[in-house]
TrEMBL record, chains A, B:
HAMAP family: Hydro_lyase (MF_01830). Its EC number is 4.2.1.-. The keyword Lyase applies. PANTHER family: D-GLUTAMATE CYCLASE, MITOCHONDRIAL. Gene3D superfamilies: PSTPO5379-like, PSTPO5379-like domain. It is an enzyme of class 4 (lyase). This is Putative hydro-lyase ISU02_15060. Transmembrane segments: none annotated. The lineage of its organism: Bacteria, Bacillati, Bacillota, Clostridia, Eubacteriales.
């Protein structure tokens, strides 16, 4: 198998489109930003766009497509209906199925939202020597539904989902400094320390992803997470909402460092 | 007359509501952010919200109201139909009139957009010892229509309007550094130097506001400007669009320093 870490985003998108790549995209196209996907009919797009505006930490928008258009500006010659390895289709809040592509179910009234993804800030952390536990453990990041409610917008409301990375206090300070520079990919953490303060009952039993080890000298650090829209969809039950499957992201042409501010 | 610079935003909004204050708001409520206003019917709100998402430098959103709601969260007990000293009503792209309040013309389908305003970054510049020419000259900032086109969104398209502040090269460097920290109020400049490179034919003859002196050792510095939506409205001619009159801003409860990132 080719080393996908050194391929260009266009190359890997083509392989995904041809069903030659079906796996999670972590580690592919080193240096390029990956994104979360939310597809909604135009009738729901205003409420969701307003939801992202009011909740930029869980929902940092990288691009919103024009209505019915499959090619995104942040990914040359892309096709959002085929260029993600695995899609999830939610109907009235129920996960109806997972699909390789959306060709047969594409609608001319669909609007695609690409939201920034923590892979970008994890690269920045690792570049500065901060180990990321779930990457060391080769598993998914642990994610938790909190009692921090999003600002509602139209039909959309619900709890903030967070991802958690444990680290020693000196690394916590560095990680806050580094991720503050990346508001387009969730930015600074929204909580550190006691999980109970944000409504997490059992840190060892995440709602999404896998548990990771937290060592005795470590503090859990919580970032707002792009899975939030999926938790919201399950709650508010829109007619239809399509997302990426966790870990199966949209690979953009945006270089990670371009998402850093200042 | 009371010194409005030391009044609270709530106090001054009340005075404006009572028609006791009708003047431009520059200098009022020291330390608090003021905002540009755009009101549109809900039918046009998606296109405009998407326009702001695609053009965050001229259109940095501080808040979008719920449909028909006059009170904004960033201004406790506010009434957006009365709390600005002077409104402009555009119908099909024509400035139809200026009004003290909107009570008689308020519609239940109106959505209010508050966009960040350069007063915030001017405070930050002055706090670091950078003189702002139009404030020294006690006039309006000069503004120019450029040939830098905004990213279109739905019906909205048009040129970026910029504001200009001349300064010496050492101050230009500082000003870029300082304003980069304020993406919510237009952020870093979008051009420095030769006005012709962005389609400005006569720097001494601005399209909005007043001309200011540019000294021999100074470089003109151009920031994206919140008047852009008004230039866009004149071009795309929406059924109705209501804005503040230039310089007559909405005074929010947001402290300026809260808009700084990192």
């Amino acid at each position: 198998m080719r080393d996908l870490s050194s391929c260009t985003p266009a190359e890997v998108r083509q392989m995904i489109r041809n069903n030659e790549v079906k796996s999670p995209t972590a580690g592919m196209c080193h240096g390029y930003a990956q994104g979360n996907l939310v597809i909604l009919p135009k009738a729901l797009a205003y409420d969701f766009l307003l939801f992202t505006q009011r909740n930029p930490k869980p929902c940092p928008v990288l691009e919103v497509s024009d209505v019915g258009i499959k090619t995104l500006k942040i990914a040359k010659d892309s096709d959002i209906a085929t260029d993600i390895p695995k899609y999830r289709v939610y109907k009235k809040g129920i996960l109806e199925g997972e699909y390789d592509h959306l060709n047969s179910m594409w609608r001319t009234d669909f609007v695609s939202f690409i939201l920034g993804c923590s892979f970008t800030f994890e690269s920045a952390l690792m570049n500065e020597g901060i180990e990321v536990r779930h990457i060391e453990q080769n598993c998914n990041v642990p994610m938790y539904v909190t009692d921090i409610m999003c600002e509602p917008a139209g039909i959309f409301s619900g709890p903030t989902v967070v991802s958690m990375r444990p680290m020693t206090p000196d690394k916590v300070i560095q990680a806050i400094r580094i991720t503050s520079r990346y508001p387009g990919v969730h930015g600074a953490p929204i909580h550190i320390g006691d999980p109970g303060l944000i409504g997490i009952r059992d840190i060892h039993n995440p709602d999404f992803g896998d548990p990771v080890e937290i060592k005795a000298n470590e503090i859990p650090v919580f970032w707002a997470c792009g899975v939030t829209p999926q938790a919201v969809a399950m709650k508010v039950k829109p007619e239809i909402m399509i997302t990426h499957a966790p870990g199966h992201m949209f690979i953009t042409d945006i270089e990670n460092h371009k998402l850093a501010i200042v």
